[in-house]
Design a protein that fits this description.
By secondary structure, the chain is an alpha/beta fold. Helices cover 29% and strands 11% of the residues. It is built from ten helices and eight strands.
Length: 317
């Protein structure tokens, strides 16, 4: 796989500083039951990196400082302490997000996962990169679309996506190649129409730009499209997106407990720095004030500010 970090220099991306901390995003490991071509984590079935019980304790100790615990991976549900961490966070009154690939709900040993998520009132943010079978299977593997539809039906049967249920089900779209996502509201209408043919309902669609890092970035390099895509991101930069980028209110934690300004910086090995200190662990931040701290930026940051903007919560405008 081609390394893209050396290609991501800082060419004038505006400086950013942290605001009030609201979300702790935790990558509990890279093991996944899928290997998607757009994956910026390079996750897959053969990955073995998993967060240790000690780091899980550090996460739990940090939760009083934030409103939201955002759990990701890999397939985060494959971590043996996923459910206990969710329950601990909910007992503390924290909002919990599960970044779910949908097909995990049908894996052996996970048949009761959907019911668990519903019982704990967990928000599900589910990746479904398109609403057609052909494009989903091309990007994620044969049969993934059908299994995803089955998972969505299972979630709907539990109340997810229904008005007034309080069980949020949001879907995530990624472009198939080196292009910006279409307008989020318009695409959401298309998703509602097409998925409605299966009787599926959901709350919101989030459109995310593909980041030129890890597996997707390597593919761009192999096809000779890396510079072209970076040029598109830079030309499409909108300064009014800077105030809403996710890194201003989020801390990202890797499976070893090291902290970053965002999940993308985590994958590039760009650590959060505080008063000259780098390679900090989450346990070292429990009593530290991060507001106003500079954020590590490189060229990939244009992926969050290009066009309508892109974040873990979808378009910024």
């Amino acid at each position: 796989m081609h390394a893209t970090a050396p290609l991501l220099r800082r060419h004038g991306f505006p400086p950013l500083a942290r605001g009030r901390l609201e979300t702790l995003q935790v990558n509990v490991g890279y093991k996944c039951n899928q290997s998607c071509v757009h994956c910026h984590v390079n996750a897959g079935p053969q990955r073995t990196e998993m967060m240790s019980p000690q780091v899980i304790e550090d996460v739990a100790a940090f939760l009083p400082r934030v409103r939201t615990l955002d759990i990701t991976g890999g397939a985060p549900e494959l971590h043996p302490q996923f459910r206990s961490l969710v329950m601990r966070a909910r007992r503390m009154g924290r909002h919990v997000i599960d970044r779910c690939n949908l097909t995990i709900l049908g894996e052996p040993g996970q048949q009761d996962l959907a019911a668990f998520l519903a019982a704990e009132r967990v928000e599900v943010i589910a990746s479904l990169p398109c609403y057609t079978e052909e494009l989903v299977d091309r990007q994620r593997g044969k049969g993934v679309y059908e299994r995803s539809i089955e998972a969505l039906c299972k979630l709907n049967a539990l109340g997810y996506g229904a008005a007034q249920s309080g069980l949020a089900l949001n879907l995530v779209y990624n472009p198939q190649g080196p292009s910006l996502p279409p307008a989020q509201d318009q695409l959401e209408a298309d998703y509602r129409r097409e998925l409605g043919r299966h009787g599926i309902v959901f709350n919101r669609l989030f459109t995310l730009a593909n980041m030129p890092i890890q597996r997707f970035g390597s593919t761009l390099v192999s096809k000779g499209q890396f510079d072209e895509y970076m040029g598109l991101l830079q030309r499409s930069h909108r300064a009014d997106n800077l105030g809403a980028v996710m890194c201003r209110s989020l801390v990202s934690v890797d499976w070893q407990g090291f902290v970053y300004d965002c999940d993308f910086n985590q994958m590039l090995g760009l650590p959060l720095a505080l008063k000259g200190e780098t390679r900090l662990r989450l346990a070292q931040l429990i009593d530290r004030d991060l507001e106003g701290n500079p954020i590590a930026v490189r060229d990939h940051c244009y992926g969050c500010t290009a066009g309508q903007g892109s974040s873990c919560g979808g378009a910024l405008h």
